[in-house]
Amino acid sequence: MQNYWDLIFLNPILIVVALVSIFFMLKNEKTDLKRKLIYLEIFLFWFAAALIIKVVTWETSLHLVFENSNLFFTLIVFFGINFVAIIFKPIATLVTGKLKSRRLWYWISNATLFMGAILALLNFAILKEPNFITLYFSLILIGFSLSANTLHYLIVCEQTFYRLNPIGSTITVASMMLFGNFIANYTFALVSIYQVSYQVQTLLCLVIIASVLAFGLSFVYKENSNYVGTFSFQFRSELDSFKYIYVIYLSLATFVIVFISEISGGLFFEEYLKIILVNHSKISTIEIYLRLNQSLYYLPQIFFGYLIYKMVLPQMGYKYHFITNLLCLAIWLSIIGFLKNPIMIILFQFLITMAVAQIFYGLFALAVMWNYRIQNFPVTGIVASSGILATFICEGVIRSLQKNKVWIFNYDSDIQSLVDNPDLKQIQDHYFVAWNIGMSILASLTMVLILIFYFTIDKVLSNYVDVRQANLDMIKLNHSQTLQRAETRIVEKEKTNV
To answer: Is residue 270 left, alpha or beta, with left meaning phi > 0 and alpha meaning psi from -120 to 50?
Structure first.
């Protein structure tokens, strides 16, 4: 029990705090129960998606046939889940906008998630030897299901916020997605440490149950197609004109922010934390720190995202909210580059994650805003794919370097091998230099972003330069357009009666 105190004592406390934050968020959003059930549906879907990715990744790593196969490694890293998601996210946004139904693609995505879980169950729990083809097909299905990511933001924005508040919809949906991911990771860890009989079967059955429940909940609230897609021409004519350069701007900014997040908090960071700890800690202690880091990755936005959106963002405005978070990010990156104390490293990683989340979801909210101001162009899909592309590149490069033991990764990365490595001191010295230089470069890149945002982001913000006023203007404009449509109908009806 001492080796798992984080899972047994700390994580339940964090879950309670997260639930309180979510309860406050949903209570504050004055919508009916059917609309609020959309959030439960989102939680269940992303719980299932995160859990099956965790299971498939773990089980694949246990089978040396797959790990040692260059062909399978290339397919899983470069043509696997992320690759499929990058391709289909823009298509999902475009097609569902044209068909006036986000739900249709979501139902298909949910079905592919269910089928992916069935194939994974067949592969790991029923077949005597895992089959390469069925496993890869399972990854393709899971990757397709992740294309529903942008649709959840749009469904909530359209059905709950009536397209008028892209910031509020983005923040609330992000909290539920992150909570689903957090609970999935916690569930996987619990099942693993208690060595539950039929672990894989248990976890994949949970995936199947969650996906079925999410699918069922999607029928509780009927989608109103009048709110799906872009604003009317009359509505758009009252707003700033869309320009394609705005999509390029948001996509590049999102790519850079996710790239910074992946390098400072992804595989590169996990190896650094492991190497720092291996001299002075037991293996169980190292595992605790690694689990803590994974848990705290999801929590900053859940704990503070909604409060910042309600209390801080309207006061500061979008522009200076971005700049403040970028400045904090640059400072935290500069500091963490020199830290060797694991507790301080975890603390600053929490602060970095919080700053990154504020910037990333702010950029995506702007993508949602512009998505309703242009016809037949998947703004949110393209911006979301740019973020996954950054993850795809970072993970692909680092995992390739690790597999081929190139550069600073010229060692066996499992903890026991590191402990037994006679060249550990040299590995640590080289890695620390690389980490220090890497964080310095990221901090400099962040400072460049501050300058770019300061001089250029006003045009991209459009009427959201003043968030509070923009929300009021959008409500007034929507009200006036509704009155005009009603008056037009009355006039047309009177003409037909004459």
So the answer is: alpha
Q: What is the DSSP string of 375-396?
A: TT--HHHHHHHHHHHHHHHHHH
Any idea what DSSP says for residue 348? H
- Domain 233-465 in the same topology as domain 21-229: yes
**Residue 23 burial (C-beta neighbours within 10 Å; 0-12, 13-18, 19+):** exposed
User: Coil, helix or strand for 7?
Assistant: helix
Q: What is the pTM of this model?
A: 0.92
Contacts of 191 (CB under 8 A, 6+ apart): 199, 202, 203
Task: Name the maximum alpha-carbon separation found in the chain.
Answer: 96
DSSP string, 114-149: HHHHHHHHIIIIISSS--HHHHHHHHHHHHHHGGGH
Query: Domain 21-229: which CATH class?
Result: mainly alpha
Sign of the alpha-carbon dihedral angle for 195, 134, 107, 299 = positive
Cα separation, 342 vs 274, whole angstroms:
9
**Token digits of residue 403:** 């597999």
Sorted by sequence, the CB contacts under 8 Å of residue 87 that are 6+ apart come out as 385
> Which residues are within 8 A (CB) of 440 and not within 5 positions of it... i.e. 6 or more apart?
334, 337
| Separation of CA 47 from chain center | 12
- Give the torsion sign (CA, 369, 374, 376, 378): negative
Buried b (16+ CB within 10 A) or exposed e, 375-399: eebbbbbbbbbbbbbbbbbbbbebb
For 337, the token pair is 């580059």
**Which tokens in the block code for residue 277?**
């700890």
Tokens 């590049």 belong to 252
Residue 159's contacts (CB-CB under 8 Å, 6 or more residues apart) are: 35, 38, 221, 223, 224, 227
Q: Tens digit of pLDDT for each residue in 350-392? A: 999 999 999 999 999 999 999 999 999 999 999 999 999 999 9
Token pair for 373: 């101001």
**3-state DSSP assignment of residue 163:** coil
Q: How many residues does the chain have?
A: 498
> 319, 378, 101, 140: which is closest to 218 by C-alpha?
101
Give the mean pLDDT per block of 10 residues along the chain (498 residues): 80 94 87 84 96 88 64 80 93 93 93 94 78 86 93 90 83 94 93 77 93 93 86 83 95 97 92 85 82 87 90 89 96 93 92 94 94 92 95 91 86 81 87 94 96 94 83 75 56 52
Instruction: Please state which CATH class domain 233-465 belongs to.
Output: mainly alpha
Domain coordinates in residue numbering, the chain: 21-229, 233-465
Say if CB 48 and CB 117 are below 8 A apart.
Answer: yes
The residue among 191, 211, 213 whose CA lies nearest residue 200 is: 191
